[in-house]
Design brief:
- The protein has about 250 residues and is an alpha/beta fold.
- It has a single domain (about 5-240), classed as Rossmann fold (3-Layer(aba) Sandwich).
- It has 11 helices and 10 strands.
- It has helices at about 45-50, 75-80, 95-105, 110-120, 120-125, 135-145, 165-180, 195-200, 215-220, 225-230, 235-240, and strands spanning about 5-15, 20-30, 35, 60-65, 65-70, 80-85, 155, 185-190, 200-205, 210-215.
- It has a 6-stranded mixed β-sheet, with helices on both faces. A 4-stranded antiparallel β-sheet has the order 2-1-4-5, covered by helices on one side.
- Helix 3 runs parallel beside helix 6 (about 135-145).
- The radius of gyration is 17 Å and the shape is globular.
- It starts with a strand and ends in a 9-residue tail after the last helix.
- Residues about 245-249 have low confidence and may be disordered.
Length: about 250
């Protein structure tokens, strides 16, 4: 029996008459991590939408622990252990931090106390409304809310997007800590290429909706020419503004 939590075969998906993803295949073993990279508009977020059931595939199959979930709705996928932190955070402006966590609660390791221990800033802001939080606090809340569903697979869509450098460093460190201490299986879509490659074990690069590269993250991280060819100026930007290693007590 395969050790893969998630297996995708020949997945094609899009919007209306437009095909965004074509013939995507990947496998993510339990406890492992995958970075999904590529220029803007190459289908990275579309892939996560399809994996979560928010976008119906045109072709292909999605297996979760060997079970076909291709046609299952998003709520069933959450119940089975898939967790998704969407791009843009999607925090409810009129709910408190605590209310965000309560409505996402599923039985398991992750409780409100566990989330507050992981993100102490949220504990201090538990009575504040979503609209009263900073961008970094909203991102912490989006991750914490997803953790409250007690996922086996955590999919993060651009978690560092739009954050100030000091907050980028903190959020990056928290994600590293989650992987190191909790052994979560991770799929990470991220613009900070060097960070993504340093965090994950495997990488897949999308180009025009197809897989342009797949292999070990370390190998691509060390291949500057391939990075510049596949992701362009992002690799150059990362060399100028790297995300440093985390320092968390």
């Amino acid at each position: 029996m395969s050790d893969d939590l998630l297996t995708v075969s020949g997945l094609s998906a899009g919007y209306g008459d437009s095909l965004v993803l074509e013939d995507i295949s990947l496998a993510v073993p339990g406890g492992q991590s995958l970075a999904v990279l590529g220029r803007n508009g190459m289908g990275k977020s579309t892939l996560l939408l399809a994996l979560m059931g928010h976008l119906k595939p045109r072709h292909g199959t999605i297996l979760w622990r060997g079970e076909d979930i291709t046609r299952l709705p998003p709520d069933r996928r959450v119940q089975m252990g898939l967790g998704w932190v969407p791009q843009g955070r999607e925090v409810f402006p009129s709910l408190t931090v605590d209310e965000h966590l309560v409505i996402a609660t599923r039985k398991g390791h992750w409780t409100r106390d566990a989330v507050y221990a992981q993100f102490p800033q949220l504990a201090d802001r538990r009575r504040n409304l979503g609209r009263e939080l900073s961008g970094g606090e909203q991102q912490m809340l989006a991750i914490g809310r997803t953790l409250m569903t007690n996922p086996k697979l955590l999919m993060l869509d651009e978690p560092l997007e739009g954050l100030a450098p000091v907050i980028v460093h903190d959020i990056a460190a928290r994600i590293r800590k989650l992987m190191a201490e909790q052994g979560l299986t991770i799929i990470l879509v991220e613009q900070h290429t060097r960070f993504a490659l340093g965090l994950t074990e495997q990488v897949m690069v999308l180009e025009r909706g197809r897989v342009a590269y797949a292999g070990p993250s370390a190998a691509l991280r060390d291949d500057v020419a391939a990075l510049d060819r596949l992701v362009g100026m992002r690799s150059l930007r990362d060399r100028e503004h790297p995300v440093p290693p985390p320092r968390i007590s």
